Automatic annotation (TrEMBL):
Matching Pfam families: SecE (PF00584)
GO cellular component, as recorded: endoplasmic reticulum membrane
Family statement: Belongs to the SecE/SEC61-gamma family.
Transmembrane as UniProt keyword: yes
Membrane topology designation: Single-pass membrane protein
Quaternary structure note: The SEC61 channel-forming translocon complex consists of channel-forming core components SEC61A1, SEC61B and SEC61G and different auxiliary components such as SEC62 and SEC63. The SEC61 channel associates with the multi-pass translocon (MPT) complex.
Any GO BP: intracellular protein transport
Transmembrane residue ranges: 48-73
Species for this entry: Phyllostomus discolor (pale spear-nosed bat)
Top-rank taxon, per record: Eukaryota
Protein name: Protein transport protein Sec61 subunit gamma
SUPFAM superfamilies: Preprotein translocase SecE subunit (SSF103456)
Entries under InterPro entries matching the protein: Prot_translocase_SecE_dom_sf (IPR023391), Translocase_Sec61-g (IPR008158), Translocase_SecE/Sec61-g (IPR001901)
């Protein structure tokens, strides 16, 4: 009976290790990634912020002009 329980315990441990190994590897890789990443410097951050602001402004102007053109067209078509 003790030999059967040893085999069963070993089998259960193998299953637990098989389940835990990918999780452990994921945590290890995640920690490595966070350590490798760096914050942007002031100059780089300002450059990114400026690019985003310009993008927002361009999209806003496009939306404004599309709306500006469609208002008279809707009034003409709608009566």
């Amino acid at each position: 009976m003790s030999q059967a329980s040893e085999v069963s315990a070993s089998n259960i441990m193998d299953q637990v290790m098989q389940f835990a190994e990918p999780s452990r590897q994921f945590v290890k890789d995640s920690i490595w990634l966070v350590k490798r990443c760096t914050k942007p410097g002031r100059k780089e951050f300002q450059k990114i912020a400026m690019a985003i602001a310009i993008g927002f402004a361009v999209m806003g102007f496009i939306g404004f002009f599309v709306k500006l053109i469609h208002i008279p067209i809707n009034n003409i078509v709608g009566g």
